[in-house]
Amino acid sequence: MTAIQPELWLDRAGAAVAFYQAAFGASVLHSVGEGDDIVAQLAVEGAAFWVASAGPDRNRFSPLAIGGATSRMLLVVNDPEGVFNQAVNAGATAAAGVADEHGWRVGRIIDPFGHEWEIGKPLGSWPPALHQASLVHRRTPGGFRIRWLRGGAGLYRARGGVPR
After folding, report:
1. Which end of the chain is flanked by fewer CB atoms within 10 Å, N or C?
2. Residue 52: domain span
3. Residue among 87, 106, 86, 85 nearest 96 (CA)
4. Quick one: 54 and 134 in the same domain?
5. Where do the H-state alpha helices sit in 25-62?
6. Does 1 reside within a domain?
7. 3-state class of 67 per DSSP?
């Protein structure tokens, strides 16, 4: 089995577990340690991620310690508005309300620990089917041709540029 399970580093890992349970309905699959000095595996409807204590002694830095996040989590759910509102009611800050953009119904929050989350769902089949896409070429000011795929949900950059 292959899976990617991100680990979020937090100053208050125990409090984060409680927040993710309230905000996203997360369940605890595994936990080691006590209080805020823990490592825990959580899941939201089968989508697993980890939380762990941060600290300079561990060379792990939370978003609050560095003054910003280095990544964003995307939580794909059937009801983006419902989960977005639940997260805000649990203590998250709304960064962008739920709206349609780039082929998704998506909203953005910042959790109380500084991590950014997008909560959304694709508006159609995802990724866009290549057989339904058309190739579009554009030229850069330097004369390079850039290939774009126009799919049902928008315009996407194809791999690589093509010289004149």
Report:
1. N
2. 7-122
3. 106
4. no
5. none
6. no
7. coil
